[in-house]
Every structure is written in C-alpha cells, then in structure tokens.
C-alpha cells in the first residue's frame, strides 16, 4: 500500500467517493482526511466558481484532497423519445405544479473548459474523471501542474484506454456501486462481476495502481479488494448518513427505512445507468426511459428537487449501493475506523 498513497501522507486506505448533488461536502472531505484517508470534492453539476469556493474551504483546513469531474461523454436522445418520456412524466410533475419541457433536449458540458482551466491554474493534489476519458493534452496539463490524475473505469478494456490517455492511476468501479455507473458505454447493460474479480482482471491487463470502489460497506469488503491488489478502497453510500454528509434528509431516512429493501440499476432519472433504492419512480419509469444524458438529467431535475423538498421519496433519486444498510448516523471518522481499524 505504498507509493500511490504515501506520497500524500495518507495513513488509512480509505477514500471518500465524490458524490455529486450535495452529499460530498467540504466537511465530509475534511473529516475523511483527518481520519487518515482522502476525500474527493464532487465537481459535477457545479460551476467553476462554486467548485473554486469548495476547494478554498478544504484548502483552508490544511488537508490533502481530490476533485472529481464529469468528462464529457454525452448520450444523444432522439427528440421523439425525449418528448414521449417528458409527456409520460408530466402526471408526476402535476403534483407540484411543474411543467416539464418537452421541446428540444437540453445538452451541456457541465462547464468543462472552465473547470479544467481552474484546476490547471490552481492545482489540487488529485483529480479524477468519470463518465468519459479526457484527452491526453488535458491529462498532461494537469500532471505538469503537479496533480495526480485518476480515471474511473469499469472494465479492463476501459483501463487500457485510460493508460493510453496517460493517467497515473485507476479507480476501478464495480456494478454494486451506488449512483451513476462510470461506464464509458452507458447505452449497454452494466456487466455483473464481483469487485475483487474486476480488480484482479484490471491488474492483469494494465500496470497502473488501482483503487477499488462499488458496494464496499464492511471491513470484509475492504479487506477483499486490498487482497485482490487494490491500494485503497473508495466508499460512498456508507458515508451518506454520516454527520458530515450533505445528503438530503429524505435520502438519509430512506437508507434506514425497512420499506426500502433493495436497489436497482435504472436510467429513469438521468438517462444514464445508476443504482438507486427501488421506489415508485424506478418501478414505473425504468422500462420507459430512453438513454439520453444529460438531457434526461435536466428534464427530471425540477421534479426531483420538488419531491426532495416535500420529502416525497416516491420520486427522489435515492442513490444507493448494494451495501446501503451499513450506512450509519455517526461521524465520518467512526465509519473510517469501523471499515479499516483492524487492517
């Protein structure tokens, strides 16, 4: 468990995953570092200015940290499929007096150029990418600025592409992960494979250091990926109920609610495959949702925000990995100790 972690003075092989949408607060990132691990700010769905503010907050605490960005990999959606889905969802939107846009699908690049410019001009220790692989020039610019660059991959083939782009290390994500899959081919079904087996397969394919993520929620899970050759375990869902998490109150409550007893992979909320607690929305709309990101994300966003404000868990994207029952109301430091204390 050497070079990848020790050069940043990390004592515990536990990383806090970047959870876009509010869960990965500066407080959570800072608490993870103070527990001996490393936290990542989620740059997704933020402007460069907002991300800069969060970077400043964590830097002022004097701890190591990373930043994650969504690398552009859009999924075009046929206008008619988009319009049909918008009209289907309108019945739910009517509950909150919303009118969902059924005109042209909205596309954007999540302020990509501005965020890269920020991170080159104001380097942070680690930067990771998901959804797509940045071009080699971007990777080179960040590395020249002193940043260690990581790429999230879900298959050995994706790992080869990441090596070609010149990244320093890989975050290998298994299909049990909560929230969006990092797959580079989101229009295809997510392959079922145990995370330790995926780590082994990637390590047999490429020589880069590996961090494992996806469904890690117990000390046994951490030990299994380390034994498979990962240098650290990255966790997300297990941190969602911690004191420092910015997850919404309905989301935190649902993770402990016995009425929510399973997770499903769905593209109903955003047009990209993502694992969430099964609820009315996943049951009703998963079979109807077209592939289309970020168009479907923008389409459903007003409805999801209204439902969250109302505590309506029927319509909220309750992102959760398969180990969601292990999420506890406690400080991040306690979770980190619980997962790695005996290593």
TrEMBL record:
Pfam families: NMO. One of its GO terms (biological process) is 'de novo' pyrimidine nucleobase biosynthetic process. Its cofactor is FMN. It comes from the Bacteria. The keyword Oxidoreductase applies. Belongs to the nitronate monooxygenase family. NMO class I subfamily. This is Propionate 3-nitronate monooxygenase. It comes from Streptomyces rimosus subsp. rimosus (strain ATCC 10970 / DSM 40260 / JCM 4667 / NRRL 2234). The lineage of its organism: Bacteria, Bacillati, Actinomycetota, Actinomycetes, Kitasatosporales.
């Amino acid at each position: 468990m050497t070079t990848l972690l020790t050069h940043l003075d990390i004592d515990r092989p536990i990383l806090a995953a970047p959870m876009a949408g509010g869960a990965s607060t500066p407080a959570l990132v800072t608490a993870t570092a103070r527990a001996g691990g490393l936290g990542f700010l989620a740059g997704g769905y933020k402007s460069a200015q907002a991300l800069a503010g969060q970077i400043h907050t964590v830097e002022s605490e004097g701890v190591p940290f990373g930043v994650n960005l969504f690398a552009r990999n859009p999924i075009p959606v046929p206008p008619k499929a988009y319009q049909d889905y918008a009209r289907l969802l309108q019945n739910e939107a009517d509950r909150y007096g919303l009118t969902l846009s059924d005109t042209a699908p909205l596309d954007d690049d999540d302020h990509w150029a501005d965020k890269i410019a920020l991170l080159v001009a104001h380097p942070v220790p680690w930067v990771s990418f998901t959804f797509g692989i940045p071009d080699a020039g971007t990777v080179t610019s960040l590395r020249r600025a002193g940043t260690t660059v990581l790429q999230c991959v879900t298959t050995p083939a994706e790992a080869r592409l990441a090596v070609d782009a010149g990244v320093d290390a890989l975050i290998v994500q298994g299909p049990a992960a909560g929230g969006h899959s990092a797959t580079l081919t989101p229009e295809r079904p997510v392959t079922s494979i145990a995370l330790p087996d995926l780590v082994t397969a990637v390590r047999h394919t490429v020589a880069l250091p590996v961090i494992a993520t996806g469904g890690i929620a117990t000390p046994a899970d951490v030990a299994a990926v380390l034994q498979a050759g990962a240098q650290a375990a990255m966790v997300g869902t297990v941190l969602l109920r911690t004191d420092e998490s910015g997850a919404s109150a309905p989301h935190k409550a649902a993770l402990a609610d016995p009425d929510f007893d399973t997770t499903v992979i769905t593209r109903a909320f955003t047009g990209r495959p993502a694992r969430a607690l099964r609820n009315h929305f996943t049951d009703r709309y998963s079979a109807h949702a077209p592939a289309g990101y970020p168009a479907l994300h923008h389409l459903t966003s007003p409805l999801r925000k209204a439902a969250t404000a109302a505590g309506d868990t029927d319509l909220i994207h309750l992102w959760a990995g398969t180990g969601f029952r292990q999420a506890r109301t406690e400080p991040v430091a306690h979770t980190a100790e619980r997962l790695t204390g005996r290593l």
